[in-house]
């Protein structure tokens, strides 16, 4: 291929994403093959073969593969690994306030003709940047419902469509802003209908909702679309007694909105609201939409419907809560002294902890922060320097399961008879362990007496 064309393709591959740009999702193996064929990357072959036509069928969700305009990427496709059939086109959208992303997975929603359980429904897929007003047009066109000022959109996030809430009518609101969850039901009905009652019956949509009181804290969290990583972390933190007692009490008096390292108090406020709802005893489940939205605003990696690491989420959340509630309004510059070897461990740890407290004072710091001791030894002179660094998490590896190996042993009796035995023993054990296992093979087994 001509060097001009190769240079042109390299520029396209290195081009920065801009909001509104369109990309076609393709199979990575095909792309790597094409790069070698085009000369963009080196190939072991003397003359690389043509990659052939792009095959989209392996990427498409089988339930949407034959759709004319709603072909979806299969749920278990992995970006960077998987990506003939209809091409799958996706746009670049904003990700938080400062970055962009190619929106590989669209938001799955279900339009419903009414809130009645037997009503017709239709699966649709829309961009997170789709305006709620466009969603209203979609449902009106699908079920031939006339637009009316007396009607509005409602959403239900539970699987059976029992519990309904009105969708905000704010101008230019997008699906991302409304925080509509994966596979939520959407309907367009009269404003006069109660959010918890059926349009065809006087009975409540959600029978459990008639219960007046629940055990405080015993409250489930709705999945907003692969947010189990977040829900598991939130349930753990909700059951830390001193932390929950603090958020049920005076936490709002301590919010530091001016801390440049914080989240303007937004994350602390949203977390506090969620904890009060969980421990109110008014419901058996709640939806952490506000917290999820505020976290995604400051940490775009947690937006969308991808799976994430629970520890990474908890680390970000605790750090955000600490800075949002930090009582130190102006952090002083503190110069850390070198270890001269004269102070005891406890004295040096207390001194360095006091340095840390001059810049960090919050309930999060009191409950979760600690110190870890490290020693640096000079390989030339042997001088040692100690340090007691602040930590919030201590990650420990899970012990590997003992690798069991089958050893073949030939047992030679005194009369010269040879008999072979297969003995299971740990691969990293010693000879005496193997002998012990072998001897145990001949021990009489205890018989249970009934």
Automatic annotation (TrEMBL):
Record-stated family: Belongs to the peptidase C19 family.
Superkingdom of origin: Eukaryota
DUSP domain segment(s): 1-118
Enzyme Commission designation: 3.4.19.12
Domain USP: 219-450
Pfam families: DUSP, UCH
Catalytic activity: Thiol-dependent hydrolysis of ester, thioester, amide, peptide and isopeptide bonds formed by the C-terminal Gly of ubiquitin (a 76-residue protein attached to proteins as an intracellular targeting signal)
Organism of provenance: Rotaria magnacalcarata
Keyword Methyltransferase: no
Annotated stretches, region: Disordered: 42-68
Protein name per Swiss-Prot or TrEMBL: ubiquitinyl hydrolase 1
Keywords: Hydrolase, Protease, Thiol protease, Ubl conjugation pathway
GO-annotated biological processes: protein deubiquitination; proteolysis
Statement: the UniProt record of this protein carries the keyword Zinc-finger: no
Single GO MF annotation: cysteine-type deubiquitinase activity
Enzyme class of the recorded protein, top EC level: hydrolase
Gene3D superfamilies recorded: Cysteine proteinases, DUSP-like, Phosphatidylinositol 3-kinase Catalytic Subunit, Chain A, domain 1
């Amino acid at each position: 291929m001509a060097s001009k064309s190769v240079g042109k393709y390299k520029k396209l591959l290195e081009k920065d994403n801009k909001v509104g740009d369109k990309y076609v999702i393709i199979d990575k193996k095909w792309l790597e093959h094409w790069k070698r064929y085009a000369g963009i990357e080196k190939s072991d072959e003397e003359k690389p073969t043509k990659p052939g036509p792009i095959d989209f069928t392996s990427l498409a969700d089988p339930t949407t593969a034959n759709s004319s305009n709603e072909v979806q990427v299969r749920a278990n496709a992995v970006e960077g690994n998987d990506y003939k059939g209809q091409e799958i086109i996706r746009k670049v959208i904003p990700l938080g306030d400062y970055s962009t992303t190619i929106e590989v997975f669209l938001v799955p929603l279900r339009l419903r003709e009414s809130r009645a359980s037997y009503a017709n429904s239709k699966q649709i897929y829309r961009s997170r940047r789709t305006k709620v007003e466009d969603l209203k047009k979609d449902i009106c066109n699908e079920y031939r419902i006339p637009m009316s000022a007396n009607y509005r959109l409602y959403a239900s996030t539970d699987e059976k469509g029992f519990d309904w809430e009105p969708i905000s009518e704010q101008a230019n609101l997008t699906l991302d802003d409304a925080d509509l969850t994966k596979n939520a039901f959407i309907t367009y009905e009269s404003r006069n209908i109660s959010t918890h009652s059926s349009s065809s019956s006087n009975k409540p949509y959600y029978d459990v909702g008639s219960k007046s009181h629940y055990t405080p804290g015993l409250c489930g969290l709705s999945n907003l679309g692969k947010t189990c990583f977040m829900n598991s972390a939130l349930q753990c933190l909700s059951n830390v007694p001193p932390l929950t007692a603090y958020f049920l009490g005076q936490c709002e008096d301590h919010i530091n909105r001016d801390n440049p390292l914080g989240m303007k108090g937004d994350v602390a406020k949203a977390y506090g609201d969620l904890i009060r709802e969980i421990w109110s005893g008014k419901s058996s489940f709640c939806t952490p939409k506000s917290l999820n939205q505020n976290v995604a605003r400051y940490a775009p990696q947690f937006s969308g419907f991808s799976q994430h690491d629970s520890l990474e989420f908890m680390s970000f959340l605790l750090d955000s809560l600490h800075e949002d509630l930090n009582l130190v309004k102006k952090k002083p510059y503190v110069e850390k002294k070198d270890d001269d070897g004269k102070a005891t461990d406890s004295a040096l740890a207390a001194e360095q902890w006091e340095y840390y407290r001059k810049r960090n004072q919050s309930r999060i710091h009191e409950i979760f922060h600690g110190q870890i001791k490290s020693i640096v030894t000079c390989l030339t002179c042997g001088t040692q320097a100690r340090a007691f660094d602040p930590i919030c998490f201590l990650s420990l590896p899970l012990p590997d399961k003992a690798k069991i190996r089958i050893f073949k042993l030939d047992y030679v009796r005194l009369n010269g008879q040879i008999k072979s035995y297969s003995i299971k023993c740990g691969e990293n054990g010693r000879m005496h362990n193997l002998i012990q296992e072998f001897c145990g093979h001949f021990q009489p087994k205890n018989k249970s007496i009934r």
